[in-house]
Specification:
single chain, 132 residues, alpha+beta, TATA-Binding Protein, 2 domains, 5-stranded antiparallel beta sheet, 5 strands
Length: 132
């Protein structure tokens, strides 16, 4: 296990839809036959890693576990952890986000709006790089 996010939820169909949409989670909460020992939800993170929805110890408690059989970069694992924590936070506001990694920089440069804002098609560029 490379990370774990615990949260509390009634896990109704709406909650499952939120997780499926935000985390690309495939869910199978209602087995057609006898109780299924497999994870009620799974998402692929990369070729050697996956995200698994597991039941917690108490009623309404759940865990999202990141597991790997490879060697992903620590920055990648941290991005997955943040994404999963944000998804769980949609269902339980008590979920805390992981602390930022030391020595990391934002992926898009933060440029002040100046001459570039006045140039032709600057609004398209700003949208592409994530600036307002």
């Amino acid at each position: 296990m490379i990370f774990e996010v615990a949260f509390t939820s009634a896990m109704n169909d709406l909650d499952l839809a939120v997780l499926a949409r935000l985390l690309d989670l495939s869910t199978h909460m209602h087995p057609k036959m006898r109780p299924d020992p497999n994870s009620p939800g799974v998402a692929r993170l990369d070729h050697f890693s996956g995200l698994f929805l597991e039941r917690g110890t108490g009623e309404g408690q759940w865990r999202l576990e990141g597991r790997t059989w490879g060697r992903p970069a620590p920055e990648t694992v941290h991005e997955w952890h943040v994404l999963v924590a944000q998804g769980a936070r949609q269902l339980d506001s008590g979920v805390t986000l992981p602390a930022p990694m030391a020595g990391t920089h934002p992926s898009t440069p933060e440029l002040p709006l100046g001459q570039a804002a006045n140039k032709r098609l600057a609004h398209v560029r700003r949208r592409l790089v994530g600036l307002p």
